[in-house]
Amino acid sequence: MANMAPSPDAKPLTLALAGFGTVGSGLGHLLEENADQIRRRSGRSIRIKHILVRNLLKARQYAIPEGAMITRDPETLTDDPEVDVLVELIGGIEDAHDLVDRALDHDKHVVTANKALLAEAGDDLFLKAEQRNLILRYEASVAGAVPIVQALKESLAGNRIISLMGILNGTSNYILSEMTTAGIEFADALQQAQRLGYAEADPTLDIDGHDAAHKLALLIRLAFGVNYPCRSIFVRGIRDIASLDISFAREFNYRIKLIGQVREVRDESGVPHLEAGVFPALVQDTFLLARVGGAYNAVRLDANASGPMFFHGRGAGALPTAGAVLADILAIARGERPNNTGYVNGELPMASIVPSEEWRSRYYVRLTVQDKPGTLRDLAGCMAAEDVSVASMIQKSQIRNLSEGASGVPLVFMTHETSARAMANALMRMSDGGLLEEPAVFHRVL
Ligand SMILES: NC(=O)c1ccc[n+]([C@@H]2O[C@H](COP(=O)([O-])OP(=O)(O)OC[C@H]3O[C@@H](n4cnc5c(N)ncnc54)[C@H](OP(=O)(O)O)[C@@H]3O)[C@@H](O)[C@H]2O)c1
Q1: Which of 49, 108, 115, 215 is flagged as catalytic?
Q2: Ligand 1 mean position, distance from CA 123 (Å)
Q3: Best mutation site among 321, 325, 326, 328 for ligand 1, i.e. most ligand atoms within 8 A of its Cβ?
Q4: How far is the CA of 180 from the centre of ligand 1 (A)?
Q5: Residue 77: which CATH number?
């Protein structure tokens, strides 16, 4: 039997680590803690030669690994001929792009956790990596520890993906979970998330849905082999979610979650198009996605051979994210060949995009109306004119208990499936007709 033990002569893999913050220092720690396992899995050791930071004097969560040199000069990392892999963990777009681009120019493989970089400015990097036969891996960039990138690229490569939806932002999910379980309002839940370190001082990217949109753009590329530009993804965040709507949703046995979704829809000629968006939606209580709590992430997909699948795990944190980064590094250490996008052509075609007004969905609607005869009839007329029909309604008596002190009466119902355009038009008719005391609240229902 062949001797499977690693050769003591195998050359160590040399890393240049850009960033020694949450994930970078977690990676340094994991490389030491799992050193034996790393040698057994890849047949060689892995060492960090350079570490790039902004502030050389800053205290670190984990110690600088032995033998590593710390610098503020990016070119020390990219231009060192001894370096095999640049690990980009600085975040942001411009500096990270320059760094990765220069590393590829110097024939380094790259591992990154940076979804903003790959979603907003990744096309030329993928192309350059392909042209130079270099590996560009990014498992940690979507859903942290959850191995969805590799699953789409390899394990599910024999399938055609039909739809995919996920909870892709832990901060928003934490806030919505707290609003649901503790019955608090958005602003209080956000403050709590910031106090506990689940939300950044500037939470805009997370709560306005843009971080989830970055991850969705990467998932679309992996699942469908097309470019769906971030700016074309419909995005609506969670700032205006009220605890009142969370309570009403529960009356219908639903929870409100920030969902990233892409699905294939075929036109009459059978030609496939994609619709993709990030938005708060009502998810049925019994669905696994509704049960994803706190800072966890999850992805549910449907594929033509495997059927439905569900991935769930920690979407962030030093060690969970570093574990995914390390898996990418190990693949390079084992000498795997580049398979960066999961498709043989580096330049992927553009997606054929369904405009968001045409998406069809059921809707949750909350109206605040005057409690007077004829109101229901007039509202029904506005909906009938747009072919929107009501599927179920919360009884008025139940609502009164929930809305003490409010001016006007809330009217809460679910519609049958309709287009976003028809829904918006029906609400516009109600508003124009003076039927609404406050702007209507409406969310998609999954
Ligand atoms: N945190 C997570 O749980 C998580 C999960 C998934 C993906 N990610 C992604 O992983 C990446 C890193 O995130 P993180 O949370 O580890 O960030 P972080 O804690 O803010 O750390 C960033 C590190 O990069 C350094 N840095 C930033 N800009 C730099 C520049 N222009 N030049 C040189 N050094 C620079 C910082 O230096 P100083 O320390 O000197 O300031 C710091 O060491 C991001 O792309 C993020 O989206 C993070």
Answers
A1: 215
A2: 22
A3: 321
A4: 31
A5: 3.40.50.720
- Residue with CA at minimum distance from ligand 1 atom 23: 19
Instruction: Specify if 149 maps to a domain.
Output: no
DSSP letter for each residue of 48-99: EEEEE-S-TT---SSPPPTT-EEES-HHHHHT-TT--EEEE-S-SSHHHHHH
| Number of helices followed by number of strands (H, E) in the chain | 16, 17
CB-based contact 306:284 (threshold 8 Å) = no
Q: Which of 29, 30, 54 to mutate to test the pocket of ligand 1 (most atoms within 8 A of CB)?
A: 54
Choose one of 313, 345, 375: the last residue of a domain.
313
The alpha carbon of 89 and the centre of ligand 1 are apart by a number of angstroms equal to: 5
Distance CA 272, CA 353 (A): 9
Residue 115 is a catalytic residue: no
The structure tokens listed for 72 are: 């503020």
Token duo for residue 423: 């829904």
CATH code for position 428 = 3.30.70.260
pLDDT tens-digit readout, 411-436? 999 999 999 999 999 999 999 999 99
Same-domain status, 189 and 300: yes
424: phi then psi, degrees, rounded to nearest 5? -65, -40
Q: Measured between alpha carbons, how far is residue 205 from residues 209, 211, 243 in Å?
A: 6, 5, 22
- Residues 73 and 168 occupy one common structural domain: no
Handedness of CA 112, 114, 117, 120 (dihedral sign): positive
pLDDT in tens, 324-381: 999 999 999 999 999 999 999 768 999 999 999 999 999 999 999 988 888 899 999 9
